[in-house]
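Late entry, evening session. Most of the bench is empty. Finally got around to the prediction I had been postponing all week. Sequence below, unchanged from the version circulated by S.P.
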Amino acid sequence: MTTAHGGPDASLPVALRTEALEQLLTERGLIDPAVVNGLIATYETNVGPLNGAKVVARAWTDPEYRRRLLDDGTAAIAELGFSGPQGEHIVVVENTPTTHHVVVCTLCSCYPWPVLGLPPSWYKDPAYRARVVKEPRAVLSEMGLELGDDVRITVHDSTSEVRWLVLPERPAGTGHLTEEQLVPLVTRDAMVGVARVAAP
């Protein structure tokens, strides 16, 4: 897996080269795998998705912000201080009782990093990328989301030019909750469209 110079073989797929590089750096005592795993977990589940959750909670509690978010996602998201690489053009679509949106990147793993962090492994998996376009209802069911036959499903393909964010339905029984109380309810998966937000 390494060349005569001790580095990863450039002819290997990126995932294998990354793994080889990590192993090499670990063996030489230059990185701690636990620290690397902790950083990845933070960006996959905390920092990025927390930003998106704040956007969703604001839209649920502020009708004017919701309107701006659906009209121009990039600008409305930037109002809350979330912008940067992988977030230059974000389009927001809203789930309703009769319409459900789900996001995929069929070419690679284009993803709105400023509001969702790093893409999860399943999002990059070739099976998800191929199947969710052809049989979204079946894929969502396998991921634990059952939708009635009366719900229309729209699949959005993220690209390097346009990244998509789903504004999930606000769960019933949360009308009394504040914006801050709503934030912890919102999950990354709900903002990709493979899950619903559960009531507390």
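Two things to note before I forget:
The two ends are 48 Å apart (CA to CA).
Strands lie at 90-94, 99-104, 152-157, 163-167.
Will write this up properly tomorrow.
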